[in-house]
Amino acid sequence: MLNRLFRYILFIAVLVFSWQACEGDDPSVNASRFRLKLTDATSPVIKELYVDIREIEVFLVDTVSNEGEWISLEFSGRTYDILKLMNGKTVQLVDQYIPAGGELQRIKLVLGNDNRLVTNTDKPFPLQIPDELVDGIFIDAVKMDLRINTISSMIIDLNAALSVRESNGSYFLEPVARAFPETYGGKLRGSVTPLIGASPFVKIIQDEDTLLTLPERETLGDNTGTFQFIGLKEGEWEVHVVASPGSNYRDTVFISTLEAGKTTDITQPIRLKAF
Q1: Which helix (H) or strand (E) is 162 found in, with range?
Q2: Which of 43, 66, 195, 228 has the smallest number of CB atoms closer than 10 Å to its CB?
Q3: pTM, whole model, 2 decimals?
């Protein structure tokens, strides 16, 4: 009887030990699943913009001790044409487990040497990285809590129009970017016509924030283009629809009021008028 009892206790002990060992090997235990995505605020004069991202780190702050540390993410490096990421489109950079219980406050990107642009005249130019940015670009993020057993998504929005500088015939990449949780703020959607003839871009402004995009045709032959902005602060935004110079169409501007957590749709196409 005692022998059987001993074997039973030993069996239970082995099960408990095995369960604890498996738990220790599971990266999801006491962790938050973190996803990092990339999107673009575009430029009307750049046709392609390739950004070579080599390393990514995030700065997490313990909300109890208020101490922070940099965490290197599982990212092997890749070059992205960010102008393919207009109008709310994103590409996923990272999907992994990281320690839960902290607050993500900053992101660091280390760039490689394969940065280049192609202008809307199809002329390519290499992009140099200024010396002060070689060690990394730091982006202040809208703070996001990393809760246990949840999926937390952060978006990096790289502003192409403000990220390229020309000096004496050379072009430099000085990324201007913002980072925000995927659920942050409001969205603005609408459409513009005519695309052919006016070749417009859309610019929205609130205080010191300026974002741009190019309307895109959804169907071949359609002369209306749709646009979308994401991760916008609530409140009033100036919406500028700007026709290409010399197109013989007038620009237009109006105010749109956004609410956090909601999508504001401009229901009727914005029709640019000819002079």
Answers
A1: helix 160-163
A2: 66
A3: 0.86
